[in-house]
Design brief:
The chain has 81 residues and is mostly helical. The chain has five helices and two strands. The protein has a two-stranded parallel ribbon with strand order 1-2. The longest helix has 15 residues. The radius of gyration is 15 Å and the shape is globular. The termini are far apart.
Length: 81
């Protein structure tokens, strides 16, 4: 049998995060993502308006103020299609 700590960790991982589609999310939906904030959420919307849909995490790093670390942190909360 697994130690209790491992069981709880697996249970927590099984709890899926409600993903937000970055390409049709509202400012409020993006702002609610931990670590993003209103300013970067607006930058995402501006980037999409100017350049079209963001297709993946690599493209997300092209948004002003979002680097690799932040893109990786918010990645689990986003979908791209």
């Amino acid at each position: 049998t697994k130690p209790a700590a491992e069981v709880t960790k697996a249970g927590a991982a099984a709890h899926t995060v409600q993903k937000v589609n970055i390409n049709n999310a509202t400012l409020e939906q993006l702002d609610a993502i931990p670590g993003l904030g209103k300013k970067k959420a607006q930058a995402v919307l501006d980037h999409i308006a100017e350049n079209g849909p963001i297709k993946d995490q690599a493209q997300l790093t092209q948004v002003k103020g979002i680097g690799d670390k932040l893109a990786a942190k918010i990645g689990p909360y986003l979908s791209y299609n």
